[in-house]
Design a protein that fits this description.
The protein is mainly alpha-helical and 324 residues long. The protein has one domain (5-319). 52% of the residues lie in helices and 9% in strands. It is built from 13 helices and seven strands. It has helices at 5-28, 37-61, 63-73, 99-115, 120-152, 169-174, 210-216, 219-226, 228-235, 240-243, 278-286, 299-306, 310-319; strands spanning 158-162, 178-179, 186-187, 194-198, 251-252, 257-262, 265-270. Strands 2-1-4 form a three-stranded antiparallel beta sheet. A two-stranded antiparallel sheet has the order 3-5. Strands 6-7 form a two-stranded antiparallel ribbon. Strand 6 and strand 7 (265-270) form a beta hairpin. The chain starts with a helix and ends in a 5-residue tail after the last helix. The chain binds zinc ion. Zinc ion (ZN) binds next to helix 6.
């Protein structure tokens, strides 16, 4: 697969939007530790959440156009049978929980570090860094999930994994592989690999060909991504798949369906546990969020339930509002 212009442009636009939103979050994070972390959080959680939502909205905005453009660029005709509603992915984390709860975890973490003896300033800075890291991960996931919904909404297409360098060894070996639309996108925290909507695996480009990507790196970069021994083994002709265990640490976020009893009702949700932090839930409710509906069933859990049946997946996606 040659470099798709649509994929490169989409990645650049997404990256810009993510950086802008992360900068905004950095500005909103107090530069010095507040006296009372919880009080600070209670005052600022709404504004922070709105910023995260704006970033998510930017991340999902042009995903359906990207899916169309990428297919067109490959001369693939795939009738669109549903209209994706990516705004449904705004205001929820990749594993179906509230943004407020995710933000609260960093503040809780900061307090725990102080309890362990870390100076307040350092703990607060670390929490700010963590927020930026987990939120930029959320932006990438929102974009990926929306792209996935765009793919399932078109007949006969799946996706190829594309690297956005620099990439880790586990992602490199998966680059260029073709996946059925129902295969959850395996990723690790801060993974920036992307879907290329496609019909089959077409090797050729360094972002979709593991060996070419490896060869595009300097020896120092090869050692960093594949370890000294691994890099040497690959240079000596070993197969990348034998050197790297791609299964380790790559998971499908939001892809584990289970039936949970939530307030006496049987709901299908993602398997990740719900974190109910009082401040976060209260803030979520104030913002009109139905905290009972979290953790929410995410698209990748729906694909799992549908077991490869596109009509069934589309029905559930419609029930949960991910498509119109
Ligand atoms: Zn990776």
């Amino acid at each position: 697969m040659a470099v798709l212009q649509s994929a490169a442009e989409f990645d650049e636009a997404q990256r810009k939007a993510s950086v802008a939103a992360i900068e905004e979050i950095a500005k909103q994070w107090a530069s010095t530790p507040p006296k009372d972390f919880d009080a600070w959080f209670a005052r600022n959680v709404d504004r922070l959440t709105r910023t995260v939502e704006a970033g998510q909205a930017a991340a999902v905005r042009n995903t359906d156009r990207y899916v169309s453009d990428a297919l067109e660029e490959q001369n693939i005709r795939a009738p669109r049978v549903a209209e994706p509603n990516p705004s449904r992915l705004v205001g929820v984390t990749a594993d179906g929980r509230t943004i407020e709860g995710l933000l609260a975890q960093s503040v809780i973490g900061a307090r725990a570090r102080i309890a362990e003896g870390m100076p307040a300033y350092q703990a607060w800075q670390a929490a700010g860094l963590e927020v930026r890291r987990v939120i930029s991960n959320e932006f990438a996931d929102a974009g990926r999930t929306a792209t996935g919904v765009g793919i399932v909404s078109r007949l006969g297409v799946g996706y190829v994994r594309m690297l956005v360098p620099p990439s880790c060894a586990r992602c490199v070996v998966l680059a260029g592989r073709y996946y059925h639309w129902s295969s959850g996108f395996r990723r690790h925290p801060n993974c920036n690999c992307k879907h290329i909507p496609s019909r089959e695996d077409r090797a050729g480009d360094k972002t979709t060909d593991p060996k070419k990507y490896f060869e595009s790196l300097t020896e120092a970069e090869q050692r960093r991504a594949f370890t000294v021994a691994g890099a040497q083994a690959i240079r000596d002709g070993a197969d990348l798949n034998q050197v790297v265990n791609a299964r380790r640490g790559l998971t499908v976020i939001g892809g584990r369906a289970q039936r949970t009893e939530v307030y006496g009702q049987q709901l299908l949700t993602t398997r990740e546990g719900a974190t109910r932090r009082s401040v976060a839930s209260a803030a979520a409710r104030r913002r009109g969020r139905n905290t009972r509906a979290t953790p929410r069933l995410m698209p990748e859990a729906i694909y799992e339930i549908a077991k490869g049946n596109r009509a069934e997946a589309l029905k559930l996606l419609r029930d949960y509002g991910y498509i119109l």
